[in-house]
Amino acid sequence: MNILAIESSCDETAAAVVKDGREILSNEVASQIDIHALYGGVVPEIASRAHTEAINGIVSRALENAKLSVKDIDAVAVTNRPGLIGALLVGVNFAKGLAYSRNLPLIPVHHIRGHIAANYAFYNGITNEEKLEPPFAALVMSGGHTSLIDVKDYTKFECIGATRDDAAGEAFDKVARLIGLEYPGGAKMDRLADFGNEKAIFFPEAHVKDSPFDFSFSGIKTAAINYIHTNEQKGAEICKEDLAASFTASICKAINSRLEMLFLSEELFPSKKLVLAGGVSANSHIRKSVSALCEKYGVKAYFPPLYLCGDNAVMIASQAYYEYANNTEDFYNYALNAHATCDVSK
Ligand code: KG4
Ligand code: ZN
Fold first, then answer.
1. Is the CB of 90 under 6 A from ligand 1?
2. Ligand 1 center to residue 31 CA distance, Å?
3. Which pLDDT tens digits describe the chain residue by residue (346 residues)?
4. Whose CA is nearest to atom 6 of ligand 1?
5. Is the minimum distance from the CB of 82 to ligand 1 under 6 angstroms?
6. CA of 226 to the centre of ligand 1 (A)
7. pTM score above 0.90
8. What angle do CA 221, 256, 116 make, to 5 degrees?
9. Nearest C-alpha to atom 13 of ligand 1 is from which residue?
């Protein structure tokens, strides 16, 4: 089954064709980063307009590079939740038009479910011997989400813990911006941290009372902001490398303390398989520290390749295949709408 998928939930217009949820035939991404960098963050109105301009070309390219025509497509998939509403609507309306014109199934996909499914396209049992299948636990870290999710089956998800305030990506981007790194600063912080001393600055780790698996990154973020401002006021030079390394280390510590608790719970984590997903899962320091923890506890770790960490449409096509196979909803609902917020279990 060839699924053509479209993703436009934030600042990337993406289209891809994936066969049977596992075999990538094309993967096209048009990034708007250069436009939003001028403003230091995503401007929703500009994002919607940029999607509108890019979508036709990017879908054509996805078909062309898959060496297929629209006649070879069996279903159209689209991210319809959660995300920037205007941005989502561009993809949803394009997908609706395409599906309706060819009388094809229209498969709506949850963005976070998609991030997790990126791993099915990589650990696919075809080009990669390893074939990832549920159940497993997923740590999803993106610009807007940080969640620990129990993936019971391809379409059955239960949230174990989530951030109460900022997402890890948001915290990385905010601190990066304050030390003069261009948006989105996450990847630049990653490189800077390579050259710093992670013990140079102490940042406190926050725990959420009575919700041990929940995260809270706003405290670490505020501590970093205060550190920068205090030094600025004193006219003292900041070692950006040390700041990046110490900040990253405190994020790693917060992540690992939740994971360790999970690994120790036979009841919550019988699969002993951990999957990482989302833009922040590209972070080399987080990968290293999570790998070490997994090794210590005999947990099998799955990291998506860098090209599938950030937003893409391969992940949407992969998840769509399983939504369709599990008949999760009416796939001929051409009145499909978009939703800015939505729990991963829905
Ligand atoms: O998943 P994603 O591409 O988009 C959303 O769904 O939000 O995640 C984007 C986030 C941004 O905050 C970006 O700075 C962060 O992922 N990011 C990183 C790295 N690469 C991307 N954060 C830390 N280290 C990285 N190497
Ligand atoms: Zn994303």
1. no
2. 13
3. 999 999 999 999 999 999 999 999 999 999 999 999 999 999 999 999 999 999 999 999 999 999 999 999 999 999 999 999 999 999 999 999 999 999 999 999 999 999 999 999 999 999 999 999 999 999 999 999 999 999 999 999 999 999 999 999 999 999 999 999 999 999 999 999 999 999 999 998 889 989 999 999 999 999 999 999 999 999 999 999 999 999 999 999 999 999 999 999 999 999 999 999 999 999 999 999 999 999 999 999 999 999 999 999 999 999 999 999 999 999 999 999 999 999 999 9
4. 142
5. no
6. 23
7. yes
8. 90
9. 186
Atom of ligand 1 nearest to the CA of 184: 14
Q: Is 7 in the pocket of ligand 1 (CB under 6 A)?
A: no
Ligand 1 touching residue 214 (CB < 6 A)? no
Q: Which residue has the tokens 């969640």?
A: 147
78's CB contacts (< 8 A; 6+ apart) are 5, 6, 7, 91, 92, 94, 95, 96, 106, 107, 108, 109, 316, 336
